[in-house]
Design goal:
With 528 residues, the protein is α+β, with helices and mostly antiparallel strands. An eight-stranded antiparallel beta sheet has the order 28-25-27-26-30-31-29-32. A seven-stranded mixed beta sheet has the order 2-3-1-4-5-11-6, with helices on both faces. Strands 18-17-23-14-15-22 form a six-stranded antiparallel beta sheet. The two termini are 36 Å apart. The structure holds guanosine-5',3'-tetraphosphate.
Length: 528
């Protein structure tokens, strides 16, 4: 049996996040190429055909040509065992991405060099900040016309509120992209376009050399000298501790498509990021090196195989080692269960795992037992990990079954889909389920919801859009909605765990509520 400690120390578990089209899929593919998980480029990139072949369990995905769900990819590289938590490509399913980030120890933020920080980057970044996880920035598409690198850095610092440290620095962009200056090694890595080979030919130049002068031409050469001087003079020092606490983001420039700057990035990234981090529970922090197995559920995926109507609960292992067939305690139900058929995603193929370690993700067949955020641990130890926050939906519908005879079915289906975290459901404050409000982060989730109720529960529904756009959970111990001073279009409802919350039609109304009710404590995320 492998030594548990050394196996855990090798683990690096991270998520790649970006605004759609910045290059997340392309970068992931190149990382898999280096890890030997795929033989040639193009396998992941042909996502429009490939991903469907893998996950055609969901018709809607095929119909729309989008990737709805996320998977986990594992490979070994340079002595490390790398787990990439892949996230859905479509921003309407970003709630899934938010939860996936809860299972990661760090995040790689891909930014399009011609666009800078985009809407979705900002949102995802907020979630990373909730946990203070290290954030690495990959500024992509340098082979195209890009914005000024200083301007990009300034924008990241200003809009995201994190300090940056450029690990390398670009020389030109687009047609005049010549490569990057590696600040640590004080070498210029010449740009070579390469889309697919494992081994990339590399040319390096010394900063003051004639060869570099000749390759760059006088203008770019001078700009590089000035930039280096400016960076060394004005920029802050590299501080690994600040990186590991999510206060400083190391920035890398490159081009995922042409496979330039990807290998230097992964090398440095794996050294700077940490092995699995301790996790908070109701019994204090759980050390990943504790030999007793523990994990929490961060994602539930239904209908991986329609013929079997199965559900897979994805768990992030937080401590110790997992061995197939081992008996564990499901803390929330108090039941002992055997994790019989754990699965792992290897470059998008499912396979049975025999053993796994803290930092790894396993998928377990779920007979309807698990909810998002649940804990499983060794039977002798009973503790619950801190829950996964619920993120505020931004779109709401009033939902009812078209056939009132199907009411029971409707409630059952709705509750199960909500338990998986695919939608959130709300009811009138202290009211019943006569009227149900469904909330989602992205509107396509409504389509998935309607489709699944029809296909899996044979229930047709009527959906009526509601004007709410903002939701805030009420943190006060007790609340009397009638005693609150609110605008007439603000509504007080409860979620499925009976937590009270307010629905608002505008940000202005949120401010009104805060200003007119001095003791009211509102929260955008609901913790566990
Ligand atoms: P995403 O997962 O973040 O949504 O982005 P994805 O990797 O799918 O990339 C979006 C588009 O940007 C793709 O082009 C991709 O080829 C291109 N791209 C990614 N990285 C680079 C880069 O470094 N340089 C350049 N020039 N382009 C890049 P597409 O035309 O939308 O898709 P496809 O026709 O290539 O499949």
């Amino acid at each position: 049996m492998a030594d548990i400690r050394s196996e855990i120390e090798k683990r690096r578990t991270f998520a790649i996040i970006s605004h759609p089209d910045a290059g997340k899929t392309t970068l992931t593919e190149k990382l898999l190429l280096y890890g030997g998980a795929i033989a040639t480029a193009g396998m992941v990139k042909g996502k429009r055909s490939m991903k469907h072949a893998v996950s055609d369990w969901m018709e809607i995905e095929k119909q729309r040509g989008i990737s709805v769900t996320s998977s986990v990819l594992q490979f070994r590289y340079g002595g490390y065992c790398v787990n990439i938590l892949d996230t859905p490509g479509h921003e309407d399913f970003s709630e899934d991405t938010y939860r996936t980030l809860m299972a990661a120890d760090s995040a790689v933020m891909v930014i399009d060099a011609s666009k800078g920080v985009e809407k979705q980057t900002k949102k995802l970044f907020k979630v990373c900040v909730l946990r203070d996880i290290p954030i690495f920035t990959f500024i992509n598409k340098m082979d195209r016309e890009a914005r000024d690198p200083f301007e990009l850095m300034e924008e990241i610092e200003r809009l995201l509120g994190i300090r940056t440290y450029p690990v390398n620095w670009p020389i030109g962009s687009g047609k005049s992209f010549k490569g990057v200056y590696d600040r640590g090694r004080e070498r210029v890595l010449a740009f070579t376009a390469n889309n697919g080979q494992h081994q990339v030919e590399q040319t390096e130049w010394e900063p003051g050399s004639e060869a570099l002068r000749g390759a760059l031409g006088p203008e770019l050469y001078r700009t590089l000298q000035d930039d280096i001087e400016l960076l060394d003079g004005a920029g802050g020092a590299f501080d690994l501790d600040a990186v590991r606490h999510g206060k400083l983001s190391p920035v890398f420039f490159g081009s995922a498509l042409t496979n330039f700057g990807v290998e230097p990035f992964i090398r440095e990234f794996l050294q700077m990021t940490t092995s699995p981090l301790p996790r908070r529970s109701d019994k204090g922090e759980i050390d990943p090196f504790d030999p007793d197995f523990s994990a929490f559920v961060f994602k539930i995926q239904a209908n991986m195989n329609k013929a079997h109507r199965d559900r897979i609960a994805f768990m992030r292992i937080c401590s110790g080692q997992f061995t197939r067939g081992e008996e564990v305690l499901h803390v929330q139900s108090g039941r002992r269960i055997k994790l019989a058929q754990p699965q792992q995603m290897m470059a998008q193929e499912r396979e049975i795992v025999e053993e796994a370690y803290a930092g790894d993700i396993i998928g377990i067949f779920d007979p309807g037992l698990f909810s998002i955020g649940d804990t499983v641990c060794a039977p002798g130890k009973k503790f619950a990990f801190e829950g996964i926050p619920t993120f505020a939906p931004e779109h709401f519908m009033l939902v009812s079954p078209t056939d009132t005879m199907k009411r029971k079915q409707f409630i059952k289906g709705m509750m199960q889909i909500a338990q998986e975290g695919a939608v959130q459901i709300f009811k009138e404050f202290n009211g019943g389920m006569e009227e149900v409000i469904v909330g989602v982060v992205g509107t396509l989730q409504f389509d998935v919801f309607e489709y699944r109720l029809k296909n899996e529960y044979a229930v047709d529904i009527r959906m009526q859009p509601l004007p709410y756009q903002y939701l805030r959970w009420i943190q006060n111990e007790t609340v009397d909605p009638k005693a609150l001073d609110l605008t007439s279009d603000t509504r007080c409802v409860q979620d499925m765990r009976d937590r009270p919350l307010l629905l608002f039609t505008s940000e202005w109304n949120v401010q009104w509520a805060e200003e007119h009710n001095k003791d009211l404590r509102l929260e955008e995320f609901s913790r566990g």
